[in-house]
């Protein structure tokens, strides 16, 4: 697995999974057209369904590689005790726990789905992480946070599930202090010739099968595969992050582009 650094000046490419038009992500739930007002409820329903098996499924779906991706993200963040991290779509706490373990300061973990927050809090108790993490239920597009209040913003595998990506990016910019940093870890578009077809076959055959066998829910994992294909490609997302006001925007491909880390500075 090779991480390749590229910058935001790469050509704005429209990959096969790019949304039909900037700002219209909310009109789709995977490959199904919907009323945009329905999307957050549908996403919440998916994660309500999978919350109890979410961590096990992540390990099975990625053969544990998601842990390496998150470790690379934390390397980029380089936590220290003076930083306050807002981890949006923080799920069951992997990034928050890693940030605290590496010497980071306080963490605010925000997730749209209450059941995911409950599972994350239980995991924190099991690990003895009883201080330094605040758990809140909230929407990435309307964060319950003061402007210019956090040093680092991270969103891991959550940006593709928001109704309007650009609104979520604007909120990230709003809550960061000047000099703060933005990080997005997300599934992306395969950049290695020959890998894309194998990855498609895996995503649309194996993932739903695993969902049915392990979580009793094939449809939710079919949606996850479809949502990845509809997400903007690396260069397109970098351009949108820059349009939200961030500077020095960069992205790093992980595992041949199966995932990518995008970053930028709030000036």
Features of the shown structure:
eight-stranded mixed sheet; about 40% helix; alpha/beta; Rossmann fold; 10 strands; globular; disordered N terminus; 9 helices; about 270 residues
SSE string, helices as H and strands as E: EEEHHHEHEHEEHEHHHEE
Helical element count?
Answer: 9
Q: What is the average of the pLDDT values?
A: 88
- The tally of strands reads 10
| Physical arrangement of strands within the biggest beta sheet | 1-9-10-8-7-4-5-6
Radius of gyration: 17 Å
Shape descriptor reads globular
Q: Tell me the domain tally.
A: 1
Task: Give the CATH superfamily.
Answer: Vaccinia Virus protein VP39
CATH class value: Alpha Beta
Biggest sheet, in brief?
8 strands, mixed
Report the portion of residues in β strands: 15-25%
Q: pLDDT under 50 segments (min length 5)?
A: 1-23
- Helical amount: 40-55%
Structural class: alpha/beta
